[in-house]
Amino acid sequence: MKRWRAALVVSMLAFAFGLAAGCKDDPQGSGHAPSDRQAESAAPAAGDSADTAGDTAKNAAKDAAKNAEKNPVPAAPDPAPSALPSAAPDPKLPKRDPGAAPLDAFEQAKRLGRGVNLGNALEAPVEGAWGVTLQESYFKTIREAGFETVRVPIKWSAHADAKAPYAIDAAFAARIDWVVGQALEQELNVVLNVHHYDELYVDPAEQEARFLAIWKQISARYKELPGKVYLELLNEPHGSLTWSKWNRLLKKTLDAIRSEDPWHTVIVGSVNYSNYADLPSLDIPDDERNAIATFHYYDPFPFTHQGAEWSGPEIGTVGVEWPGPPARQTDPVPEAKQVKWVDEWFRDYNANPAETNPAGPNAIVSAFDKVDAWAKEHRRPVWLGEFGAYSKADMPSRARWTAFVRGEAEKRGFGWAYWEFSAGFGVYDPAVNQYRQELLDALIPPAKAR
């Protein structure tokens, strides 16, 4: 996964949502930095910024103007199926019954339950480069703690040819087979996604054929596996992938997947790093019913990413507690005072009562109510694919925030996957081979553990 960014509202001077999971390439885990809503004519409303916790990040006007889509770019043609390399997974992987009934997306969403992201491993340019190499023991450790799902962030683009037919490296594909096999052996669901496809975020038209070819290979490879395997199209669409460009591309991607695999459940997120406020811009085809919508949640950003090295100096204030207001005033770093939305956030954090505090529970309740309303209106199941607080926050605050977010998701029937297992946000400490108990209890209260 990831690199976090918070999604923001389109107004040139508006306030927006501090996100995180999504997606700078950094070795710490979640590196979401505040991001700007893509400005497009006739863009659908994505939520009311007045009652959200975050505010507009720097360069909103500049980035919005840069990403404004005035003239759609002609899409590149799909790669010819005959040009794609054949894909054969590890023959030891379990196979589904060829006559199995179609999957129901709502049941599939419910099955996801409680999950964790295997972050900082396979979404790095090379596994291990960000300090995490997946171990066989991790999968049993995850299951025994009570988790039901692993989400696997994967940088497929670092292991696929740059020219047609865009073949995925055989050794890397075998490594993914191993991950899938380990998860299924422990009776875990496994979500495979395309993560950190940086070239696609910059130039969607130029990368379209390669993206579709990668997905045709993935779906062909895993089409015979059980329904516990899920396919997530793209982690946190952002940058030049404006909402209209992403909607067009996701339709083509679904066609590419369904041409190989008409059976497995797919997962689709919105633009602006899968910010909940941008779900209204997401357009999943009506005839695609075996799909789950996903969103990521890292509000309030100055709390969840405090001191994160990749988030910018304005987020460098540590000692931010949750919930607000703090018992003693928190003085932000000088850089924070130079960024309007951060300066105003700290002003409200120090002054506002709990009911209206930007680091208060009500902001989370409001956000999740909006997601729930969208899900019901569009008759789509929803999955919280990422949420977490970085290790520079104090542990009691991290645990309180994590428990509250998890609880609000479960109240509304949303499955979830915490960001992440064993790095900067980790629920597990690989140095001592044990869970950070306060975080684990926040995610899986002891009475609910298996």
Describe this structure in words.
It is a single chain. This protein has 450 residues and is of the alpha/beta class. The chain has helices at 60-67, 105-112, 136-145, 170-185, 198-202, 204-222, 243-260, 271-274, 301-304, 334-337, 340-351, 361-378, 395-411, 437-443; strands at 114-117, 149-152, 189-193, 229-232, 266-269, 291-297, 382-387, 415-418, 428-429, 434-435. Helix 13 (395-411) runs parallel beside helix 14. The radius of gyration is 21 Å and the shape is globular.
Radius of gyration: 21 Å
Order of strands in the sheet with the most strands? Answer: 1-2-3-4-5-6-7-8
Q: Strand tally, please? A: 10
Roughly what is the average pLDDT, rounded to an integer?
86
Content-based structural category: alpha/beta
Straight-line distance between termini: 27 Å
* Main sheet summary: 8 strands, parallel, barrel
Order of helices and strands: HHEHEHEHHEHEHEHHHHEHEEEH
Helix content: 25-40%
Number of alpha- plus pi-helical segments: 14
Strand content: 5-15%
